TrEMBL record:
Residues 164-278 form the Tyr recombinase domain. It holds the Pfam family Phage_integrase. This is Tyr recombinase domain-containing protein. One of its GO terms (biological process) is DNA integration. It comes from Exocentrus adspersus. Keywords: DNA recombination.
Length: 324
């Protein structure tokens, strides 16, 4: 299943071609019958489905062939997006806080929409002093203190020692201070447009922020940065992809990555590890350098071997012009 120029189709094209063929077979086989053929479940298509799935898995190895997914931004792009927002005003503080913890916690696209205050808990030592670490766990609720899967699912926000502008703990504390004692349990609430007026009640209103406002947050920030969002698919899921790509580049093993993302096995994170074409190029360049180093070793040519006896070989001279 290739193009006329012997190139592979994209993953999405393979899937569409197979589904279109199955639908056409359904119309041709049972054109005037009341029976319905569900080609996704039909036994006759089992081999075809297996072939399609195998082809899709092979195409997923190549960034230019796999199905378009939320892209992983570079560290420089994500840093610029964070610095774009001013945390001295309500919208800027909320956006900066959201972008930082989305990457730190490797949030899914809509996970921030459902995040609640009770999902966050400050860690203290035996004397009750704050350790600088904030635990995040969706099962940290009033009815399940700690939760049955606390150790498996918990993630942490850790105080940054370097750039305080991106410090998740600093932003969390500042956001919670400006948020005040609102009754709503959602952590992201609606900014008050009149926050800087004389008789304003605070930075934020006592109502959750709209779902569409949160889900389009990173996309709008990327657009302001100058990224062509029509050609590049940027969503809130890009923060998750950025975190995974960055950790993988820095040598974090897949077994550790699934603890961060919450996936059941390492096969589920392959798409995140393959989103960055730059990462693939770096691997290729490293392999080329290793191959060049291997070529630099000089080996004897066959003509330099002298057979002194039946099973004994000695080197009479070395032809230094022969290489691999």
């Amino acid at each position: 299943m290739k193009r006329k120029n012997s190139e592979d189709y994209k993953e999405s094209v393979v899937k569409i071609m197979w589904n279109s063929t199955a639908s056409s077979c359904k119309k041709c086989v049972l054109p005037n019958s009341n029976s319905s053929l569900i080609h996704f479940l039909d036994v006759e298509f089992a081999a075809a489905r297996a072939t399609r799935n195998a082809k899709q898995r092979s195409l997923q190895k190549y960034p230019t062939k796999r199905k378009a997914s939320a892209v992983a931004l570079t560290n420089e792009e994500y840093k610029t997006i964070i610095e774009m927002w001013d945390d001295n005003e309500p919208v800027g503080l909320q956006r900066k806080f959201f972008h930082v913890i989305s990457r730190e916690l490797a949030w899914r696209g809509g996970e921030g929409t459902m995040a609640k205050i009770e999902h966050f808990a400050k860690e203290t030592d035996h004397q009750g002093n704050f350790t600088g670490k904030i635990e995040y766990n969706p099962v940290l609720t009033k009815t399940t203190q700690g939760g049955s899967k606390k150790l498996a699912n918990s993630k942490c926000l850790i105080r940054s020692k370097g750039n305080l502008n991106e410090c998740p703990v600093r932003l969390f504390e500042k956001y919670m201070e400006k948020r005040g004692n609102l009754q709503v349990d959602r952590i992201f609430v609606t900014p008050n447009p009149n926050w800087n007026e004389q008789f304003s009640k605070g930075w934020y209103k006592n109502c959750p922020i709209g779902k569409n406002t949160i889900t389009s947050g990173l996309k709008e920030s990327a657009s302001k940065l100058g990224i062509d969002i029509k050609k590049t698919k940027v969503t809130n899921h890009s923060a998750r992809a950025t975190a995974m790509s960055s950790l993988a580049k820095n040598g974090v093993q897949e077994e550790q990555l699934i603890k961060i993302t919450g996936h059941s096995n390492t096969h589920c994170i392959k798409s995140y590890l393959q989103m960055d074409a730059e990462h693939h190029q770096n691997i290729i360049e490293a392999m080329r350098k290793s191959r060049s180093l291997f070529k630099s070793f000089i080996v004897p040519s066959p003509q330099s071997l002298k057979f002194c006896s039946k099973n004994i070989v000695t080197y009479c001279h070395l032809n230094t012009n022969k290489q691999f």
